[in-house]
Design brief:
By secondary structure, this protein is an alpha+beta fold. Helix content is about 30%, strand content about 30%. A hairpin with a 2-residue loop joins strand 3 and strand 4.
Length: about 80
C-alpha cells in the first residue's frame, strides 16, 4: 500500500489491488479511515478522533486532483496528464 502523500502527520495511501470507487486510506498514529476521492464520503473509521477525521477530509479535499491522478496511475497505468 504505497503512501502517496504525507501531511501534518497523516499518511494518505492507495492500495495497489483495491477496487472502485476511487478512494484513499488515511492513517495517523495507527488510527485509520477510508475516504472516497470524488465524493469525500467517509467509511471504515477505526479509532480516529473527530478532529483528526476533519483534518483528513481537508487534506483529501485540498489534494483531490493529485490523489485522483495517483489512483489512475496505480490502477489503470495512466499518466498524470491523461484525461
Amino acid at each position: 500500500m504505497p503512501t502517496v502523500l504525507r501531511v501534518d502527520g497523516f499518511a494518505v495511501r492507495i492500495l495497489t489491488d483495491d477496487h472502485p470507487p476511487p478512494h484513499v486510506h488515511v492513517v495517523k498514529a495507527g488510527e485509520k479511515c477510508k475516504i472516497e476521492i470524488g465524493t469525500l464520503i467517509v467509511s471504515h473509521v477505526i479509532g480516529m478522533r473527530a478532529s483528526d477525521l476533519v483534518r483528513a477530509l481537508e487534506i483529501v479535499e485540498e489534494h483531490r486532483w493529485f490523489l485522483w491522478q495517483r489512483w489512475r496511475q496505480i490502477h489503470y497505468g495512466q499518466n498524470s496528464d491523461s484525461r
